[in-house]
Each structure stands twice: as C-alpha cells, then as structure tokens.
Design goal:
This protein is of the alpha+beta class. Among the domains are: 54 residues, Uridine Diphospho-n-acetylenolpyruvylglucosamine Reductase, domain 2; 107 residues, CO dehydrogenase flavoprotein, C-terminal domain (Enolase-like, domain 1). It is built from 11 helices and 14 strands. It has a 5-stranded antiparallel beta sheet. The protein has a 4-stranded antiparallel beta sheet with strand order 11-12-13-14. Strand 12 and strand 13 form a beta hairpin. The chain is globular.
C-alpha cells in the first residue's frame, strides 16, 4: 500500500550550496537524485515519509572530465551519459558495459551513478566495476569536502561511510594504464602494484540474471588481469549479489598474484573465492547457485 503523498515533502534548492544547507538544517532529510530506486520503494509502500531534498539544480554534480588523477564523474551523471562518453569507453570500458546492463532505457536516462552507489544495494551493477578501477568517492557537506576510497565505503547492508548531511559529489577513477588507446597517468592500485603504461590488461564483466534485460543480478562479476612472463602480475576482482555488500575479493587476488596461470592456480583461486563470499537464498536465486556461478565466472575470467 502506497503511503499518503501528503506525508512526503520534496524541496528543490536552486544550488548545491542550498541543498547542502537544507540537509544540514534537517538531519533526517534524504537527498533525491534520479529517484529510480526511491520510486520503486515508494510504490512498494516502504519509503519512509519525511523530507527529501532534490539535487536536480546542483550543476557541480554534473559532467565527465579529465582530472589530474584520471577521470572525474559527477554524481548526477546518468547511465546513458556514461554509455555515450568516449573518454570512459577508451579508458574504463567496464563502466560502459555495466551502464548498458542497468535497467531499461528510462532508468538509464534518469538513474545516476551517485544514486547507484548511495542506494547501497549489494546487487547494483556499477559498484563492482568501481571497485576494480580503485574508485575514490568525493563527499561534500555544508562543512566541507573529503575523499574516501570506495573500497570499504560500504560497511554493511545499507550502511555506508556517509555522515549526516553529506552526499556523494563525484566519483574519481585513477588512471589505469593499458585501457584503451589513451591510457591515463599511472597510479598505484589500492592492493598490489600499479599498472604501468603498455601493460596488456584483460577486462571482464558479467551480469547473470533471470533474463537478459532489466533484471536484478543474481551474480555480478568484474575483473582486471595482467599476465606477463607466464605469471599473474596483478589482478583485481569484485562481485555483487554474493554478500551483504559488493565486495573486492582480496584473498582471491592474493591466491593469484605472482602465480602461473594454470589449472592449479585457478583451482586455488576458486577455493579462496568461496571463503570470501556469503551468498543467500532469496526470491531471485539461492546460495548454492550463486556460489557455483561465482566460481564459474572466475574460471571464465582467468581462462
């Protein structure tokens, strides 16, 4: 049952400063970006009544730009804008693939990357990609700005390193050498060494759902792999829908890094992965299926 709309208040400040001031003055208020997730929750009758602050006039939250550290993506950037960006297609192709997999055309035109992160769903399509690209989140409030690594931002189911009155303003992607024809400046990975210019990097993204379009993922997998001299030099692996949050599979990466990419190493990586994930039974799938698919996707990525 949908609650009475009179129980909700949506304010539309004229600027980012106005939105931040309103959120500071009303600690229980929630920001409203594309609304694609909130409207589903509203229709289901589960959206808490109260004050919502629209970000639609916050121009500072728009745009995909080159930055000193790589690329900066405004939190209000839509999935459609991500798909159309040559800068992202050349340097971060997995992000475009994830945006193509997210909902239908209407959702892609309205939904935002910042909203996808802040919704904190373990089944979201773009977060695994952000994890393997070592994304950094820029957070802003009326009292200032801070940056936090995306790894560790989700602290539990629907729990984030986000303070009252604080919103995601931009997603920063460090340069990943070897992606596309114009690799950005090399930066150090959060785990392992830095990818270097010229490294042949294998990119991989798979979303497994009930159908091929407009489905919530049963398992979502993103990976980057650099193999040289018959050994794994570096690897990054992230998954969605297999734990209370999206996860970076650090133990699996450790099982691979520095090892020859053979059957023994792949089997060891599969065993490590199954210790890191904690899939559940729900309406979309069951834990046993999710575990098997996750291991199969890892093998496909490495093979």
């Amino acid at each position: 049952m949908i609650p009475l709309l009179e129980d909700y208040q949506l304010v539309v400040p004229r600027s980012l400063r106005g939105a931040l001031d309103d959120l500071a003055q009303h600690p229980q208020a929630r920001p409203f970006a594309g609304g694609t997730d909130l409207m589903v929750v509203l229709e289901a009758g589960h959206l808490p009544p109260g004050r919502y602050v629209s970000l639609q006039n916050c121009r500072e939250l728009l745009g995909i730009e080159r930055a000193r550290e790589g690329v900066s993506i405004g939190a209000l950037t839509t999935y459609s804008e991500i798909q159309r960006s040559p800068l992202l297609a050349d340097n971060y192709p997995l992000l475009r693939l994830a945006a193509l997999e997210t909902g239908g055309i209407a959702t892609q035109n309205r939904g935002t990357i910042g909203g996808n992160v802040a919704n904190a769903s373990p089944a979201a399509d773009t977060p695994p990609v952000l994890l393997v690209y070592d994304a950094v989140l820029e957070l802003v409030s009326a009292s200032g700005t801070r940056r936090v690594p995306y790894v560790g931002f989700h602290r539990g189911y629907k729990k984030m390193d986000l303070q009252p009155g604080e919103i995601i303003s931009r997603v920063l992607l460090p340069g990943v050498a070897g992606q596309g024809s114009r690799p950005a400046e090399t930066v150090r990975a959060s785990v392992g060494r830095a990818f270097r210019p010229g490294d042949p990097i294998r990119s991989y993204y798979r979303k497994v759902g009930t159908r091929r379009a407009q489905a919530i993922s049963k398992v979502c997998f993103a990976g980057l792999l650099h193999v040289e001299a018959a050994a794994v030099q570096d690897v990054r692996i992230a998954l969605g829908s297999v734990a209370p949050t999206v996860i970076r599979a650090l133990a699996t990466e450790d099982a691979l890094r520095g090892q020859p990419l053979d059957a023994t190493t792949i089997a060891a990586a599969e065993r490590a992965l199954l210790t890191e994930i904690a899939p559940i039974d729900d309406i979309r799938s069951n834990a046993r299926y999710r575990g098997r698919v996750a291991a199969n996707l890892l093998r496909e990525f490495l093979s």
